[in-house]
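Protein chain data
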Amino acid sequence: MGDLLHHENIPEDENVSLEETFARDEDDFPPFEEPPAVPRTGPTGPTSPSGKATSSLNRLTHGCCSKQTVLRHEDPAEYEFTMNFWLERYQPDNHVAALLVEETARAHWLL
């Protein structure tokens, strides 16, 4: 069993600490060099504002986290109908109540 534990980095002298055993000078390590920059050769994506706006919707599968309330495949008139329905149904009488009804109507639309 003694042969299995024997290693050239582990001293046989029990008085030597691990810190002393594995201590290395900075000169023992090779100098760090930044890897060379690799120029991009493939497509880099759209550069025009309209192209960027279109590509921002590429991965959109639902609107729950979207900044847009009405997505491109949804009918804006249907959204307006939903908002008006909620506002007429609850008839908020102050600004806070109107905000709460609008927020609830928007959540209903997103579901």
In short: The helical segments are 2-5, 18-22, 49-55, 76-90, 95-110. The mean pLDDT is 79.
